[in-house]
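>> received
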Amino acid sequence: MPTELATPAPTAPLSSLEGAQPLQRLIGELQAELPQLEVRVPSALTREYAVDASTRGRLAGIDIGPAVAFPSTAAEVQVIVRTAAELGIAVVPRGAGSGLAGGATADERQLVVSTERLDRVVEVSPLDEVAVVEPGVINADLNRHLEPYGLFYAPDPASWDISSIGGNIATNAGGLRCAKYGVTRESILALDVVLADGALVHVGHRSIKGVTGLDLVSLFVGSEGILGIVVAATVRLRPIPVARRTVSAFFATTAAGADALAAITRSTVRPSVVEFFDSRTLANIDAHSGSTLTARGGALLLIELDGYGIDEQSADLRAALEAVGGLVTEESVEDGEALWELRRSGRGFDPAEWFAGGDIAVPKSRIPEIFAHFPVVEERFGVTVGAVAHAGDGNLHPVITLRIPEGADPGVVPPQLHDAAVALAEFALELGGTVSGEHGIGSSKLGLAALELSERSREAQHAIKRALDPAALFNPGKAI
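>> returned
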């Protein structure tokens, strides 16, 4: 059910904000046309809606947050967007705020349209193996809803228990299972989208196949809210596997573990999940979570098998990994769950260190090369680099750290962290990869996107943006 939130009183009158007159008029018109709609005026109490998970550090410098509307129907979203367009007010779509690229940041001159109350599972069709859901449905909640039907929704970003389906669609989120089941795009059949003029359009098909017209579903998936606001999605479902098994394989070094990934590819086994932890990541998890992973080896492949023939799959996988030096264990259900929880939330950050993250991706055959490049970056910039990887599809999450010298201001991050992150992204591009595998570009990685996209490609993308949003009012300054 939609969450009921009390309307907070603003800490400053809206009329006192610079440039507030059109926004004040917008709020007034929305309250007159949609008296049931909650709209919060810009205030100190809306500061949380100015940032996402990756930009929370900016909160200390924000006095006034944006205006925020909380629609609970597609029709309300249409009115909000149409009225904002008439007044020239920029609209920032927002899901659960768990994004990691600054894709939902907003200021006091803008209107955030929160989809958190568009949270219904509209339909489940077991025979069609589809569900129709609103964008505010939390990823994990959808799978709890589907469990009695014997079905599941495959995309599972690490933030699956807090991130929304709409946000997953906006960034084409990946996650652990995409080694076998693909990223979000592979599970989206159709979308209902509110365009910049307030029109509601349906794109895609309920059927698995469908080639009529251009593939606008794939265009909207991953568009980060710059082309429209998704108000419903028809998602593809899968049968819950008859069996699942966690297999761990420890190796003496990071290089040995990275090289062992080829043995999985050459085998007949196709795991649903293949996660790789290098030596620095294992040490970090042990320090943060009190685990003892480093006692078992210097690098870890954590693998999930699913489906029929689980014993045969496990035997073939064991043979393949032991042949390249792996210490292989078929984990118990309890131990497997503990390891997956460490994967999702075991890493931590030392307050005595500066850090920078990322989500580069490379062809999976090139994973050993990028891990081998970490020492080059470390020596060049005086930093340390470690990473966990969705190794089944070549997506790495590097963490770059630098010790904060005594007396230094922790809030002033030295440029070598940024420079090191750029250098890693450039090397990923050299290997045929990308600067963002699943987090999106948002506002934080526009410079990196410019390294990857040709001028002509960017021109084409801006032309599409102009065609759908000629006044550039949807999530300005993001993605492209």
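>> Confidence is low (pLDDT under 50) at residues 1-19.
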